[in-house]
Automatic annotation (TrEMBL):
InterPro entries for the chain: Glyas_Bleomycin-R_OHBP_Dase, Glyas_Fos-R_dOase_dom, VOC_core
Protein species of origin: Edaphobacter aggregans
Full protein name: VOC domain-containing protein
CDD domains registered for this protein in UniProt: VOC_like
Residue ranges of every copy of the VOC domain listed in the record: 8-134
Gene3D superfamilies assigned: 2,3-Dihydroxybiphenyl 1,2-Dioxygenase, domain 1
């Protein structure tokens, strides 16, 4: 078994087909501060995690979907587990920005072990994002 470590930031690089659209979406719509950038990539601070949008023309691809809870969950996807109040504020921010949800914000496992809020949406390049929050964060990996 791997020893538990304190939370550390993750890093993910992903393709986008338009850096200006990525800058507007991640920087303005999601409110991610911008870090270093070049003509080929942009670093963003996604709730303390480093994500990097890399220019790749024709980045859009058909996503695979798996059935979960009666929804078609896009694979691959990435996102962050947030505190519930932050998740709710983000959901409101996205609704106000007119974002189209793949899976509307909702609560899974209501009243059960692992109760969690979740929502899915796409960035302008078609990358799927999921943001979650747990009623009790200690149940993040509960079975």
């Amino acid at each position: 078994m791997i020893e538990a470590m304190p939370f550390t930031p993750f890093h993910i690089a992903f393709p986008v087909d338009d850096l200006d659209a990525a800058r507007a979406f991640y920087g303005t719509t999601l409110g991610c501060p911008e870090g270093r950038s070049s003509a080929q990539w942009i670093d963003f601070d996604l709730f303390g995690h480093q994500i990097v949008a890399h220019l790749k023309l024709s980045a859009k691809t058909d996503a695979h979907h798996n059935p979960v809870d009666g929804h078609d969950v896009p694979v691959p996807h990435f996102g962050v587990v947030l505190p519930m109040a932050t998740w709710e504020a983000l959901a409101d921010r996205l609704r106000n920005a007119g974002i189209t949800f793949i899976i509307e914000p909702y609560i899974r496992f209501k009243g059960e072990v692992g109760e969690q809020a979740t929502m899915f949406f796409l960035d302008p390049a078609g990358n799927a994002l999921e943001f979650k929050a747990f009623a009790d964060i200690s149940q993040l990996f509960a079975k």
